[in-house]
Amino acid sequence: MSLIADKDIPRAEPFRHEALIYSGTEDFVEQSSLFIRDGLKRGEPVLVLVIGPKIELLREKLGSDAEDVLFDDMGEVGRNPARIIPVWREFVTTHANRNGRVRGIGEPIWAGRSAEELVESQRHESLINLAFAGAPAWILCPYDRQTLSETVLEEAYRSHPIVSSNDNIRESLSYRGLAEIGIPFDDPLPEPPSDAEIVPFEEGDLVSIRSLVMRRAVQLGMSRSKAEDLLIAVHEATANSVRHAGRRGTLRVWRFGESLVCEIRDSGQIPDPMVGRVRPTPEMRGGFGLWMTNQLADLVQVRSSSDGSIVRIRMSRD
Amino acid sequence: MKKNEEISQGALDIRVEERGSWSILRLTGDLDLATSPDLREAIIRLIDEGTRQIVVDLSALEFMDSSGLGVLVAALKPVRENGATLNLVAGSEKILKLFRITGLLQVFRIDSSVDRAIES
Fold this sequence. Notes:
The complex is a heterodimer of chains A (318) and B (120).
Chain A (H helix, E strand, L loop, with lengths): L15 E7 L1 H18 L4 E5 L1 H11 L6 E5 H4 L6 H12 L6 E5 L8 H17 L5 E8 L5 H10 L2 E4 L2 E4 L5 H5 L15 E6 L3 H15 L3 H21 L3 E9 L2 E8 L22 H8 L2 E7 L2 E9 L2
Parallel strand pairs in A: 1-5, 1-6, 2-3, 2-4, 4-5
Antiparallel strand pairs in A: 6-7, 8-9, 9-10, 10-12, 11-12
Helix pairs in contact in A: 1-2, 5-6, 8-9, 9-10
Chain B lengths: L11 E8 L2 E10 L4 H13 L4 E12 L1 H16 L3 E5 L3 H9 L7 E3 L2 H4 L3
Helix pairs in contact in B: 1-2
């Protein structure tokens, strides 16, 4: 398998993926603005993906310099963390050229993340190394040591080759490396609850599966547009089982707080760790399915092992 | 013309309508994994019969998936090789969204009505 995920990304300089361990909001604003201004001084395009309130703080600190910086709200872009890499990819391919590097700040992990979002954000952080290996980009990922647990910080050391704090920059000795990141993700998911609705399906059942998902979404009081998005997201995963995994699979549906969770299990394997994170091109045959699922759902958890694969899709009511 | 409710759930109905040099494929029902091969055949048949101006009207579809997108994208090759034109009609956000999130809005000409689609 090729570790180079996309031939369109210029690869003039080595990619630098760095975790910044900071202490509290003031320190975040201080260190982030230094990093941004340093980039602007060198004429490098800068993209900042952090949650809305932090965008406001950075704009305030940067003053007129903020006009030269691209901002996007990580709370929206990264609600499903599988949607973040495509945003970086677009930024890098649009702005990087032979003359220079681009830089960015991406904070996909903050204290308010749910346990499921956290694990997918951590997977995303690892995959960034694979997606941009060799690309002329410097992505700085801030981690707040005041609000995040020690376990989360330890994982930041495993997903980033470089870790810094204040003036201290060092290589991470526990970085897991591209070889390990490149294998399919098989971290176990929590078992579905015992009251989950279980529906085995085959090729001819996809229409009734769609009706079932719509019925459960309506029962939960989901808005029409979110229910339609969920319907397509789930359909694409079941269609993949029919296409690639012996024409059958098992759907489980359950309520999780104010969300509906739909899980598709089948006997197939998903060898590509970047599945659903590379925007399909018209020349590609296939590859649209899990991309669409990722774009439409609030959270998508993909697991694959020799036992088969799991796609767990979550959509909130509102 | 057959009405929506007469089509059984999950089925795709394809009607061909001629308007001058244009052939319009009006789709009703579900364009998905099971039914998209029918659309591929219908487009290929039109090209084989010598039609060079084709409109696929998606606006009355109940449901469409990535297989439907895939058939439309795959049809571009024979369409271009034969110097033909393939325009789409889609009105609802539900259908347009699929083209937007897959980056295919830039690949197709998509109009809101058949009348617009056959304007030069």
